[in-house]
Specification:
27% of the residues are buried. This protein is 46% helix and 14% strand. The protein is of the alpha/beta class. It is elongated and about 60 Å long. Residues 1-7 have low confidence and may be disordered. The longest helix is centred in the first third of the chain and has 19 residues, at 34-52.
Length: 180
């Protein structure tokens, strides 16, 4: 059983660190390149945010000279995932630490990283840390739980617009019994 997520907590990800700790994301990076790995990461995070009803997740990437003309911040997946690219002269690690140090409530931030510098500095700034493997496990459990209970404990009969025979098919399919 996974621990419940506190709704006031916000995730900030060391995105490249996470990609290198995920076998799936790393394979995509190695085989198809950065853009494909980034798109896969956004899809993974969007699903997690939606299922868990979280605030948008911030993923911080190292900047590159090639991308110096691009926006430093992008919103993806309907605003559920915010991508921040460090200035090419900075590192994502420094941007992450600055985000926590400048936060009004650093205790509400959970930084996902295995980088020792990031973990040490975030803890000094009174933020929380979570290792990449633990975060990926939480995301996988969330997806597994959603498959097991697609209505998240809600009774599908409350949704209007279904014909009686459609309602019966769905309630039979998901094992709901008529209370009458």
């Amino acid at each position: 059983m996974r621990e419940p997520y506190a709704p006031e907590m916000k995730y900030v990800l060391d995105a490249c660190n996470l990609i290198f700790h995920s076998d799936d994301l790393y394979r995509t990076l190695d085989g198809q390149g950065f853009q494909a790995a980034r798109a896969q990461l956004v899809d993974l995070l969007e699903g997690f945010v939606r299922r868990e009803r979280l605030d948008p997740i911030v993923a911080v990437f190292d900047g590159s000279e090639k991308g110096a003309h691009l926006a430093r911040e992008q919103r993806e997946a309907g605003g559920r995932v915010v991508l921040i690219y460090a200035n090419p002269r900075d590192e994502a690690d420094r941007v992450i630490v600055d985000l926590v140090e400048c936060a009004q409530r650093p205790g509400q931030l959970t930084v996902v990283s295995d980088d020792k510098f990031v973990v040490r500095e975030v803890k000094k700034a009174r933020g929380h840390t979570l290792g990449c493997s633990a975060f990926l496990k939480r995301v996988r459990e969330s997806a597994r739980d959603a498959k097991r209970d697609p209505f998240q404990g809600e009774d599908p009969r409350k949704y209007a617009g279904l014909a009686d025979h459609e309602l019966k098919e769905w309630t039979d399919l998901f094992g709901f019994k008529d209370d009458e």
